[in-house]
Every structure is written in structure tokens, then in C-alpha cells.
Amino acid sequence: MEEIRRIREELSKKLGEDLEVLLPARRYETAGEISRRCLRRREERLTLTDMLDHVFLHRALGIPIFLALMYAVFQFAYSVSEPFMVMLEAAFGWLGSLAGEAETPLASLWADGICGGLGFVLVFIFPIFFLFFALAILEDSGYLPRAAFVMDRLMYRLGLHGRSFIPLLLGFGCNLPAIMATRVIDDERDRLITILVNPLMSCSARLPVYVLLAGAFFGAYAGAAIFSMYVLGIALAILMALLFRKTIPQLRGKPAPFILELPPYLRPTLRSVLLKTWQRGVVFLKKAATILFAGALALWALSSFPWGAPLEATYAGMLGHALEPLLRPLGFDWMAAVALFFGFLAKEIVVETFGILYGVAGEEEIQAAVAAHMTPVTAFAFMAFTLIYLPCLATFGIIRAETGSWKWTLFAVAYELALAYAVAATIVAFGSIVWG
Amino acid sequence: MQERREESKLELELKGFAVGSAVLGAAYAALGVLEVVSVAGGFSFEPVPADAAGGLCLLVVAATFLLGAKELLEGRTLGISFVVVGVALAAVFGLLYVLIAVAHALMFVLGEAEELSLLAELRPEIWLALAAAAMAPYLRRALKELRAI
To answer: Which residue has the higher pLDDT, B38 or A389?
Structure first.
């Protein structure tokens, strides 16, 4: 094996190109030559796929078009879903009011814990479904593999493997299957880097946090603020991959070459798009029925007992005050600290926590309560912190399973915490200088 | 003779697309710059919003149309691809802002928005998309002539 590797390296050096790229390229070239000699074509026909590829894979325009389309996707998910969220929220508000004043533990559990907490998270089902709907259209049209192709040029230069793009893109939905999808990457170093940076891709669980805070602080620019989190995630993933590649001895080296066969463009069918949307969106519903429900119960109990005590004197208050000194330099108060602490279970719990701790129902009321505790700069820093700080519990488990190493799992947690702190501190410092 | 006449007809059509594409590209570029500059300058006037990210997207559409115009004027048939993608991108953004306008109207009906300005909702992306859509039937015919579809 050693001898074969040596010969391969020698050949690659001699030919000036990696053998993994050269061999398939020559194979295609020879196949093309044979077909040219054996087949007689009446005329060269330009297909629609050729024409679209001429633009979507364009050296200069490919990436800007991809970013513009992604911006449209997030605007669609955020802005168009808003009225549906309002309607569902009103329904939960009405359900919560059925128990009357929350004077007894049972009434409080129903109104504040279930309708105020879990119900408040559930309204975010709409932006999540809308996001998956738009991504399914792009996927079924055959555009997404092109996006992987155009991003490969940039990613290869920055130390990531082109095949990493699909797992990274899947991370926009959920980091768990995205990390499992890294199995398609043959090179162990490339795979490990992709796993380590995957939690930086903003999964749909973080979307409710962005929607809440962006809606409260950025008004007409809420869509752009949300989009900026996704761009920040991609930028940080690329930067960290480059850094790991350059500094960690086990990860040093060039990424393996990427060969991708592009399928023809197709007109997406409504049935397929809806099916994909449902299959991906239902994960959120299942989560709501299990971990988010349990989280709502636990948070309600922590913020309600000792019964009758003021919020700051409850168990949640005690926990928040214990954590607050760590996060105070970033401008986060004890409630934000509790939200981030429980966000480790599932990122949606961050929003659920705000719903329960502020003790108000409805997006507008919670947004007003959040606005009283944060400034636009700290809100933006909080969004960035939520994006970066920790993978959720399930992702933590899958990183351990896929890397087979506690060392790399703990490394992922440690670097993300440090990075989140550094990025949030930079946002706060920069924001304080610019806006005072 | 017949073939030659058809060829020159197609050439003429492609020149027409080049002009249309250049005009649309210039319009998209002007509005994109206005949307971005409005943010930097802290001003906005209806129906052109101060929207940096939206403006940058308009500039991407503009670049697509302008590259198409350039290639077509240089006699490269493949330049029509940029016009096809430009029209598609224009349709995506036009439809997006129509849907957003409908969402805003719903919010107004639900009592969540204090006012609804039709002028503000009719963003330039919508009427530019309509202008781009006017090219679609001609594009379809040209693609058929090129046997791309």
C-alpha cells in the first residue's frame, strides 16, 4: 500500500495534477473521443441545461446568484410566514386564557408553561416549513448540486472539500442528519473538518430565536438580519476550516479533489416538494411533542417554584444569577443566561424560555419584553451567540458517534464556546463604538 | 436561401434581446444602487425602499442581464442564457415581493399593522419583473428556434 501511495504521489507530481482528478477527466475525454468517432450527429444541439449551467456555474456570477437566491429563500421564510404565525399565536393565546387567571399551579402550568412556552415555540412551525418548502424547490429543480459546484472553487481554496458543501447545506435544516451525511466524504481529514464546522451552519431550530429578536429590534430589516446570521455561519465555518487545516497537525494537508456529476434541470412537482417539506418539517413537530414539551414543563417548574416566590427567587432565577457574571460583559442578563443554558437541550428552548420567564403571551408582548432587556446591539450579539455557542444535545451525541472520539467532541464544544464569546464580544464592542 | 433568411431573422431577434437585456440591466442596476445608497444616506422615498441586501440582489440581476447583453452584442448565441436566467431571477424576486405584499395586507387585516401603503408595497422588483416577463414569450420562441427546448 505504501508503495502504491508513493507511486501515486510521484505520478501526481510528474503530471502536475492530482490523480483523482486526472483519471476521471481522461476517462471522460476518451469516452467522448470514442463517441465522436463512432457516432454521427446531425448537428450540435444546445440544451436548456447547457444554457442554464453557462450562467449558474459562471466564474464571476455563480456565487452572487447563489447568495441572492438564498436571500430570497430567507425573506420568503420570514416575511411571508408572519401572518400565519400571528393567527396560531392568537389561537394559543385564547387557549391559554381558558384556564383563567394563573393563580393555581395547574392553571399556571396550562397558561404559562404549555400555552405560553410550548405554544410560543410552535408558532415558528411556519417559517420552518416555508424554509423547507423553498429549499425543496431548489433541490428538485437540480440547482443545489450546481450550488455545491460553484462553492467548491471557493471552498477548496479555503481548505474545505467540495463534497462538504452538501452536508453543510443540510445543516440549514438540522445538523444531525448533516453530520451523518459527512459519510460521503472519503478523506478522513476532510470529513473530520466538515463535522467540526457543521454546527456553525444555522439549523432551523435557531430560526425562532432570530425571528423573535430580529422582529423585536430590526423592523423592516428583520429579514436581512436573519440572513446575516446564515452568512455569518457560512463565513465562520469556512474560516474555522481554514484555521483547523493550517494549525492542527492531524488535519493538515490539501483537501481531496471533488468530482460531481450534475443532473439535468427539472421542473419541480408540487407533490414532491410538499412531501419533502413535510418529511423535514415533521421533525420539528416530533421534537415539539417530546423534548420541547418536557423542556416547557421543566422550565415552568423551575420558574414557578418555590410557588409564590418572585421570579428572581425561583430556581430558574438562582441558576440565571449564578451564570449571569459570565455573560454580563456581553450585555446578557440572567434570563438570557437561563435561556442559553437550556438551549443546549434544543435551540428552540431559548425562545420557549423567554416565553415562560417573561410570563407574557404573544409574539408582540414577548418582543416588547425582550426589547426592554436588550439593545439592538446586544440582541444581534445574542443571535450570533445562539448561532455559534454549542451544538444541541442530539448534535453533541452524533459528533461523538461519527468521530468516535471524545477528544474531538469536546474540542468542538470548547472551540464553539470560545468562538461564540469572541464573536459576540466583537459585535458588542463594535456596536458600542459605532452606536454608543 | 430560406435557411439564410431564418438565420438572419434569428440574429436580428438576438440583437433585440441584447437591447432589451441591456435596458433591463441598466434599470435593475440603477434601482439596486438607489436601494443600497438609500441605506448609506439614511433616506428613502416610496416605492424605492432603503434595503441594502435587497439592493445587492438587484445588482446581481442587473449583472446577469448586462452580461447577456454583452455576449449577444458580441455575436455569441450562448449569451441568451444570461437573459433566460435574468428573467427567471426577476420572476423570483417579483413573486417574492408580491407574496410579501400579500402577507403585509393579511397583517393589516389581522390588526397587526397600523397602515398599509400600496405604493410602498409595489416595490420596483415587482414592476421590473413584469417588464422582464414581457420578454418571456419571445425568449421561448427563440429557444425553440435554437432547439434548446
So the answer is: A389
Comparison of pLDDT for A191 and A154, the residue scoring more:
A191
Facing A55 at nearest CB: one of B52, B64, B100: B64
For B99, the closest of A71, A80, A87 (CB atoms) is A80
pLDDT in tens, A158-205: 677 767 777 887 788 778 878 887 876 778 888 899 999 999 999 888
Residue A83 and residue B103: Cβ atoms within 8 Å?
yes
- B57 vs A contacts (CB less than 8 Å): 68, 71-72
Q: At B1, is the secondary structure helix, strand, or coil? A: coil
Cα separation, A64 vs A60, whole angstroms: 8
Contact B57 A68 (CB under 8 A): yes
**Residue A201: closest CA among A225, A183, A178, A224:** A178
What confidence tens digit (pLDDT) does each residue in A51-107 have? 999 999 998 999 999 999 988 988 898 889 889 988 988 888 888 888 777 678 888
Going from N- to C-terminal start, the domains of chain A cover 2-45, 56-435
Indicate the residue of B63, B82, B103 with minimum beta-carbon distance to A82: B103
Q: How many CB atoms lie within 10 A of CB A421?
A: 17
Residues in chain A: 436
Q: Evaluate the CA torsion angle B102, B35, A144, A185 in order and state its sign.
A: negative
* Selected residue with higher pLDDT from B132 and A44: B132
Confidence of residue A351 (pLDDT cuts 50, 70, 90): confident
Question: At which residue does the C-alpha cell 419584553 appear?
Answer: A369
Residue A221's contacts (CB-CB under 8 Å, 6 or more residues apart) are A214, B51
B48 to A53, A154, B32, B36, B127: CA distances (angstroms): 32, 34, 9, 10, 12
Cβ contacts of A79 on chain B, cutoff 8 Å: 99-100, 103
Cell, residue B26:
441598466
Note the ipTM here: 0.92
Task: Please report residues of B whose CB lies closer than 8 A to that of A86.
Answer: 107, 110, 112
CA distance A296 to A287: 12
Collapse the DSSP code of A61 into the 3-class scheme (helix H, G, I; strand E, B; otherwise coil) and give the result: coil
Determine the pLDDT at residue A69.
Answer: 93
